[in-house]
Fold each of these.
Amino acid sequence: MSTHIGAAAGDIAPFVLMPGDPLRAQWIAETFLDDARCYTQVRGMLGFTGTWQGQRVSVQGSGMGQPSLAIYVNELFTDYAVESVIRVGSCGALTERLAVRDLVIASGACTDSSMNRIAFEGLDYAPVADFGLLRDAAAAAAARAATRGPGGPAVHVGLIFSSDSFYAARPELAARMVDYGVLAVEMEAAALYTLAARHGRRALAICTVSDHIVTGEETTSHEREQTFGEMVEIALTAGLVSGAPGTSGA
Ligand SMILES: O=P(O)(O)O[C@H]1O[C@H](CO)[C@@H](O)[C@H]1O
Ligand SMILES: O=c1cc[nH]c(=O)[nH]1
């Protein structure tokens, strides 16, 4: 066991999906994985391992915000030898180019968090996605859209803003960020990308737009927990198509 994850060595797969919401983790495990088993309930931050198309996958809740995610990701990398993590989160759209339920595959994550400023003594570090996972997620999204035809959620690749505040202290900054290409706001990806770089592992964040900062449209908590399956299937395809080592269910 690690400090915050109640799993034995080998209980967690090399590839992990990571929603903020532990109940979304449970829904993903019950909906998408075969033979899913819960390996931790410490602090209610549920984690499961099962198989998807015969390959081992884990799903681990991160909690909300970068400090919480960093606890789980540090322990996954150092105590459980996890190789790749794809965050499957929700986000708020900052621009009318995006609609509620659209997907954002985050190529990089701006942040107002002090975590990297402390680590880099004032230098601005640029947290970016793993290119292979990003490429494979974009390809999986395009293939699904081509098979399905018109009507599914639009998929955007670009920058997001990982904020320490759900209730923005300076909401007027959103328009300036949009001018510089930022599409949406969430609360964890910058720490995930930074820790993956630090540990030489792979990370990506895919988020579904749950709220629209411009129009005020929003989804319910039940929808955020149990209906964002398109991003989950794209994440599973990207994580396992890229051939993460040790994912074989055999
Ligand atoms: O739905 P999750 O994955 O938790 O992500 C978003 O939702 C939470 C805020 O409601 C934050 O964690 C934010 O990043
Ligand atoms: O507006 C939103 C929606 C989801 N997550 C956030 O951090 N902000």
Note: The domain at 15-241 is CATH 3.40.50.1580 (Rossmann fold).
Amino acid sequence: MADQLADREVASEQAFVDRVYQQLERAGAAAQQLATEGHSRGRLGHEGGLVERDAMVFQAAKRIAQLDAAHEGLVFGRLDLAASVDEQPRYVGRIGLRDDNRDSLLIDWRAPAAAVFYQATAAEPQDVIRRRVLRSSGPRVVGVEDELLDAEALAAAEAEGRELPIVGEGALMAQLSRARDRSMHSIVATIQAEQDKAIRAPGKGVVSISGGPGTGKTVVALHRAAYLLYNDRRRYESGGVLIVGPSGVFMRYIERVLPSLGETAVALRSLGEVVDGFRATRHDEPAVADVKGSERMAELLRRAARQQAPGSPTEYRVFWRDDRIVLDRGALGRVRRNLMSQGRRNKQLPRVSAALLDAMWRQVRGERGREQGREKFDDEMLSRDDFLEFALAWWPPLDAPTVLSWLREPDFLSRVADGVLSTEEQRLLLKSWVSNGPAGSPGGAPDLSIEDIPLVDELRYLLGDVPQKADDERDDPMALIEGAVDIQELMTASDREYAPSGRAWAPPTHSIEDDAYAHVLIDEAQDLTPMQWRMVGRRGRTASWTIVGDLAQSSWPAPEEAAAARASVLEGKPNHEFHLSTNYRNSAEIYEFAAAYAERVGLPADLPDAVRRTGVAPTEIAGVADLEAATRDAVVAMAREVAGTVGIVVPAARRSDVNAWLASWPELAEDARGARAAIDSSVPPSGDDRVVVLTGLDTKGLEFDGIVVVSPEEIEAESATGRATLYVVLTRATQLLTTLS
Ligand SMILES: Nc1ncnc2c1ncn2[C@@H]1O[C@H](COP(=O)(O)OP(=O)(O)OP(=O)(O)O)[C@@H](O)[C@H]1O
């Protein structure tokens, strides 16, 4: 009986969904035609035609991208309202669509009219009688899940002859129990009321979203980005939206969510990729990372950027008429300080020769020289190769990696670090830079760590952009100091990131002028170091912000210092706080285990309620004699048990060993479910790899059906914040958790 009823409801929804898809096809054909028309106008050749073509192709391509993305579960919601409001059902989808009469067929989930779909509750039904979620596979409706919000209104509606049966077991539980794959999915159909409030918060100032593990902070923040783009497309698309997350693996995990919501005009960057033109994927060891992340590095770099370039000339001599002119250390030091006081170092390049000539002219005392005058003096000096070469060598254009490489010299470092860093801290820095051959190392490719990137950025701003030369001056370095031309490509942030072809990335300009975005969204914000806050802060001085995080998951050892850096970045911006309180990821059994750990080790944990029980408690195996055999048994069993992903979390020092084990286990290669193992998590795994090896830090923000933790006590001991890292690890599994020690 119940099945028949459900089948009938599915069939009736299918009829509506078919209508929507037909309309979508018509909209798609119209957009295609617009694109074709646009191209043929471009062939006319005149300039107006080209501009028009660009605009048309851009619009059409955008529409097409939106429509393609919409194909997955295009229609997902239906509201039946009290007769006094509207007898017709309202449908909610990923995009808005009108029928041929321009009447609304489908409401965009972000439109004000759709808000009630998320906000109505049984306590406050807001005229909603029944909320229905449609589950689909492509264009096929496979099920419906209803919620009755107002029983009295239902009785009244039925008395008037409307049929509103209630079927299904609740959309949320169905959604939460699904197997996890390698990407995060959108939650448009099941956004909960407290999440909806954060998503729809006004786009001014700072929206801070906090909550414990698995409360949907990341997924909510991504839906908020889509909401902002929908609501103020002009502002956010032209100004750009920057989304920053902890790692490349994490960015790949979340990258599908926004396109599936029809949005591609967004820059997704891991912390190692925030600065245009640089890409770091390697972490420094924790003790080094702690030094590089400290705000004290800003003072050290400020000093470094003011130093004379190591190896540059310290003296210039020339005879002119009756005078012997000498620019010695003292004189040069004065010129340097004077230039430095006028602004960024590279910006002074056009003034260098004039400043040197001023100092030199003051030494011209002889009558013959004075009579001939300053102009004659300047002309003669500027035609001397040795003078121009000196000027360029003394004040060369400097890029950030070059200045960073100066710090590899122990003497240089101790000079600029005096009173800022301890001897031990200086030693750690030297060790990291010398052993990894940083940028500028002779012959060695730059190997910057994720923690080096904020230092590079700090220096970019201290030095200013290296002037670009015009084409005909490429081979003439002198052009730089003789009134350099500052030619930059004119591109906005969104031009950079968004190409109509659907490719989300175009070459960056590398200029500090182009760093700014209209909205900055920081995920896992609890992990940002003070130097990272400064780096992202420069990208959002006039932006609105969304910041999500959970302090108990922090791996930064000095929370007060990070909080101060954050406060100074956001100073003067109004702050709106949102808190999420339900854990949607972990089974209740797994989260209880993790929460007990957090309490035991004294983490300041914000403990959400986990809503889904599986009846399976985590497995703790202690006193393991053969770690490889035990790991293999646990992983193989788990891969059989769950349909989705399995993560093996290991101490950083054991990662390559465990990778080698994994590669040698035939059981996994031949796994009946076709599981294949990704050999190394630092290499992007292909789509069907469902078993991966990760360090504790790698797991930030991710989730898996099953997690096997190898040697939790070693993960705990890896750094000063190892307990927080282990807490993160224990909160990654949706179904099964096993620990081996
Ligand atoms: N309303 C919802 N409907 C369905 N699934 C949801 C909902 N909210 C969250 N989820 C799911 O819960 C899981 C956790 O979400 P997410 O990763 O955003 O949480 P988080 O708070 O960022 O976690 P953490 O801080 O632990 O990294 C994801 O699988 C997400 O899709």
Note: The chain has a mean pLDDT of 86.
